[in-house]
Amino acid sequence: xxxxxxxxxxxxxxxxxxxxxxxxxxxxxxxxxxxxxxxxxxxxxxxxxxxxxxxxxxxxxxxxxxxxxxxxxxxxxxxxxxxxxxxxxxxxxxxxxxxxxxxxxxxxxxxxxxxxxxxxxxxxxxxxxxxxxxxxxxxxxxxxxxxxxxxxxxxxxxxxxxxxxxxxxxxxxxxxxxxxxxxxxxxxxxxxxxxxxxxxxxxxxxxxxxxxxxxxxxxxxxxxxxxxxxxxxxxxxxxxxxxxxxxxxxxxxxxxxxxxxxxxxxxxxxxxxxxxxxxxxxxxxxxxxxxxxxxxxxxxxxxxxxxxxxxxxx
Length: 314
Ligand SMILES: NC(=O)c1ccc[n+]([C@@H]2O[C@H](COP(=O)([O-])OP(=O)(O)OC[C@H]3O[C@@H](n4cnc5c(N)ncnc54)[C@H](O)[C@@H]3O)[C@@H](O)[C@H]2O)c1
Fold this sequence. Notes:
This protein is of the alpha/beta class. It is built from ten helices and 13 strands. β5, α5 and β6 form a beta-alpha-beta unit.
């Protein structure tokens, strides 16, 4: 049986790490792709696709920009966030005013414009709060301890509501810790990119706490495969953990990095932060069962690919 990969996709936040990797795969599969990102956003991540995509520059938090950009879209990927977990508690009002309100406008417009499906990236690292057990299953009810997680969880609930009330089709992916090509090492989110980059450039790596914090790292090509597959697959379940299902602590990550780079990076330890959960590992059995795909790229292989990418950037 052949799958019909056709239709117009709009990727909100398509110039970023996940969006640009996704854009490449959607093009490969034959979709028409429109990238929506900020005014004058850097085209570096998507430069190889520029002759094959439509670009819209605008503000996701502006209702008119949203409405106009959506015209004619069959599929929508919502990959925009104004906040990150570590800093979102500094201004929860801003978090809600930007991320929550704009998503409600998006949902309204998707219903009006009869969009076929909307894909939203939620956060497996924050919506569960301090999980009762790990690996965490989708059914575990969480109490997020940062505004970012509360807003992501609330947005998930609105997706559920719009589906029930208006039949809007959607999937939510609670992503763990993605890493790989095109992730900026200059942002605070993404330990792999930051640590690898610093190691390569000979800059000391700062670890908050004693390095025992455990995370679940997934390589970016494994992430975008599932995101793209979700356009042609519908299940009773709408919400999926998207992760490797394996935990690695920060000290182990440094060891793996040493193995790939063949030298020991300079690591300094500082006091832990109260937003960091001790352990976060997501149970990925549902996504594996439904999508019939397993994460293919091992941490060693993923680190090698990422190191090659980071060596070429300033
Ligand atoms: N990277 C992670 O570790 C991770 C983990 C879990 C969930 N997520 C979620 O995945 C999504 C994508 O993350 P990413 O890592 O690719 O982020 P990113 O910062 O690399 O990309 C986001 C893109 O959105 C654009 N953007 C931001 N505000 C905008 C606005 N007002 N109007 C138009 N464009 C705007 C940015 O310019 C950027 O290109 C986000 O919703 C994030 O919360 C990321």
